[in-house]
């Protein structure tokens, strides 16, 4: 018995799979065909006779599908073809002239009627003479209701919403009158129990109690709390049902992240070779949200050890005061340096989206540049601005990044020399027709000093390498001394234009031209290189492999460059 039942079930599904629906429309209309198929859905029949029993219902469904598109006079004739083993239901459709719009009334009243953000649709599908489409009518209703909910008009309602269809005259009227009612406001924000002070949490709220309701503010509060780094889960709710006097209380449920995290990483690039990295962070060490951490980086040309202590400001998620100290040793070709640094950095996110940093650090460095060596002590104030705008953090399709870093020192104020150093950078990315990507990069810098010979190696400019002028090894473009050793330049200018084509998902071919140099005078010659490459958007980020050739110095030969990281 069980075997027989299983066989019957198998035969049922097998028969259902072999049944087919064929829709033939004159004149051809893909939208009407797809709507009919969606209305009827999958069909199953185990014989031609069974298919005929379905034909009438399928015809009625097809007529409903056509009426939804304005075809009230369409004719549908069903036929059954094929065999008992593979029956086919064929629907021959003659569309006829559709119903068209005569009068369209769209009105909004109430408090929201005067607001610019509460807009009426301007669709060509809702103009007199347009073909009637039930979907556009329903979309318009949804748009008005969704706008009301987004901006806090929770008591909004339709005073009138009708479609008046004169089938004989092939004309229709649409009437939509919506009353927004009063606008609700956001009230006080309350938080679930956390290890943090209430004052710290309230400083993360991006609005004041009493502001008009906007769903974007709720979403922003959620993002800002997650961006603080204190929580691994955030849930924000503002139920209109709990409003009093049009004030909606905002309730936030928080789950604090673990205090400590330890991370290890590594990588490889042709600039520095293999590198290893270790990082320890205590994300919060008291109720005021203070944090601290330490980092270590090891590679053949560079070794670095640093630690920091951070105090949140207002707003805590984007403004902080960081104290730091660190040691670094760097040995690249003709330069060797060791430095110790102690300083503080005040970072704040400005209202225009820029990140501003104001710093002060005391730096001691022993350096060797070619045949020269020395030791410098510098008290360096700094000012920096940075902004990145993109549609995706890991693999953007368009966006840009800008940065400016200005620093200097005054001889006699805990410094050996006078200098001012300016570094500018810009990147831009644009994607055309999903597959064609255009990437531009420009960086420039300069140093003004009355004692440039005493400027340490870490502050001088070098070019060449993965992020500068490909076709040359890392930091090999530089002025040289009388012995031919590279000693770094007063100025630097480097730019790149790159085209990428995505031939399969996540894989792109690239071609590029780089131009630039580090020099002591703007009149010094520049270097140009060109090459091709491959890009792979891996789960851990974009990976780049380039083959570049110097045009200015053909004898340099080809160089392979490998690197990882975001393009902006």
Automatic annotation (TrEMBL):
GO CC annotation terms, alphabetical: cell outer membrane; TAM protein secretion complex
Protein's GO biological process: protein secretion
Signal peptide: none
Domain TamA POTRA, first and last residues per copy: 22-94
Pfam families, sorted: Omp85, POTRA, POTRA_TamA_1
Full protein name: Translocation and assembly module subunit TamA
Keyword Signal: yes
